[in-house]
Amino acid sequence: MGRRIRHHQYRLSQRTIGFLVAGIGLTGILIASLITAQPGRNTAITADASQIADGRSLYVTYCASCHGLNLEGQPNWQRPLPNGMMPAPPHDATGHTWHHPDTFLFQITKYGGQSVAPPGYISGMPAFGNQLTDRQIWAILAYIKSTWPPEIREAQESINRQSP
């Protein structure tokens, strides 16, 4: 009989160790995410209604002529134009804007498409750094992101978390 009790205690002890290891692992992940978080980083995801409204107005003024009033992009946006440039892509859920982290979207808006283009690629995306403040760029991005369905916003936020 004493043997069964010890065996039962061993199983309970093994289970307890498993829970402890899992708890330590989860604690490590939490600590790592807190250490790598950038609390001072301004991202569009933390936008409020006022920032989104400002962003919509700025989008209409600076972006809609190429990317469409409804964020639909130019027709056949995945095929090069005769001059070799790509048409402006949509910023709605059908495009690839959400495939990029906020920092990339900010950079391409502020410094232009050529700033992130691979060698030999000619981007038609102009730089807006001389026309828009950083706050205005973040507002535009907040507006764009506010139009995405929840699952797209979640996927893009996951990309943000993986981005350096």
TrEMBL record:
Record-level Gene Ontology MF annotations: electron transfer activity; heme binding; metal ion binding
Transmembrane segments: 12-35
A Pfam cross-reference name: Cytochrome_CBB3
Name of this protein: Cytochrome c class I
Cited PANTHER family: BLL4482 PROTEIN, BLL4482 PROTEIN-RELATED
Positions of the Cytochrome c domain: 50-148
PROSITE patterns in UniProt: CYTC
Source domain of life: Bacteria
Keywords from the named record: Heme, Iron, Membrane, Metal-binding, Transmembrane, Transmembrane helix
Keyword tRNA-binding: no
